[in-house]
What does this fold into?
Amino acid sequence: MVAVEEFVKKLVDLQYQMNCSRAYWELHPHTLQLRLSPNLPDQICRNKKNILKYISEEGNCEKLVSYLTTRTIQVIYHLNQFINLSIFDKAALHQEYSLFINQLYNLLSQSNQVTKLKDELHRILSEHSSRLRSYLQQIQDREIIPDDPQQLIVCSQYSPEFQLQMLGIDLTELWEPVLDIGCGTSGNLVTYLRNQGFQAYGIDRNIEKADSYLKEADWLELTDILQYGRSGWGTIISHMAFTNHFIHHHMRIDGVPEKYAKAYMSFLLSLRKGGSFFYAPGLPFIEDLLSEQQYEVKRKSIKTHTLYSTQIIKLH
It folds into this structure.
């Protein structure tokens, strides 16, 4: 069944790739209408018996539902990096995919003709799209979704070299161990640093492939990670991630800036003496409040931009 599971996941991935390759505005909650891959009905028909058997076996339906839920959460975060789905939001999405898979299973059990199957697939996908539109307009952070489909706040991943340059990090002076907060789904910078021989780790709320050095976690709940080792972290990095969200919540009427301020100070406290926290964009509203006896603040201007990056050095 492993081969069938991989085949099913491949079909799912192809669907996501095709829909995510469209213009971002087409994926807005007001306009979302998922499309069916042209070859999908034929592939499903040819492998219908194996797919039905796979879904019917104990545990597989739940695995597939969880996989679909995770993939959709990744897309939601990619399209608007400031959305934070609550436990209830995630549970509702999981329930939606349970319904969708149940519809798909019943369809495959009852339909034998490719033409009819294709028509019915379009129907249940259309119904699923409608429910997703409704779901996205009811989530906890629905108010921060722009009304204009052209104004989605897309989350991007940057090359390791670009991140190091923007943060002003010299690898010859980089202290270990290194923690990248908001490392991105692939942990590009973490992998780059490890290939350079550094002891580096990363956390993000979405990790494509968990590893011993990449962990899926909420940066507001990093107690165990921040207590790593006795000497603390030599370097903490966060490029266009944690502080970007801190600023967002600082300016947001219903934000939680106090939680970000608490997390920010916990990052600094977890540094070893002489260690650094590199981040961008800078946070003038909290940097100016830091004790000069405990921390040194260095700022690096970013050319052609009003933003700057910051290095906080722990003195004691």
